[in-house]
Amino acid sequence: MAQIKIANFPTKSLAYFLVLGGGILVFVVLTILPAMQSSTGLDMEIKKIESSMDEQKILTPVYDNLLRKTKFKRIKGIAAPKKNKLAQGDTRKIVQRLNNIAKNSNITLVDVTPDVDTLIGGSGHLLINIVAEGEFINMHKFLFQLCELPFLEFIEQIKITSIRKTKEFRLKVWMAQE
Question: Per the domain annotation, does 79 fall within a domain?
């Protein structure tokens, strides 16, 4: 093999070669590597957006269904019924009317209990505890029909709790009585 003498190797060519190699190395480090890193970051963002779009495609029918269920007929206002008072023995009528309202509203009445103290006390008001189950959307119709009762004074409390796939509604309702 022939030995290359360093003295015969042109130093100017070697300097040009090193400068050219260094320039290519600097170009790669300053332009191509950051571009690859930003490309990787963009790929991750694209995957996030694609998964978000997939979720939206899956949830759109559910959202549309809920939107359809929540569209109520426009009610111009509740016609304020003429206020009447309940006769002492008409507590059964209240339970029957509440059952009818619940059936019309697709709500199940679990319990309707008049408060004994207000029943006997002669205060002019009767407290009724109502426990009902059903879908939250149907509660709107139930409350509007309840407000149309002529002997309703006011609704003191409404508690809503989740039970399985439905909701449980607990109401404290005051009725006017003689």
Answer: no
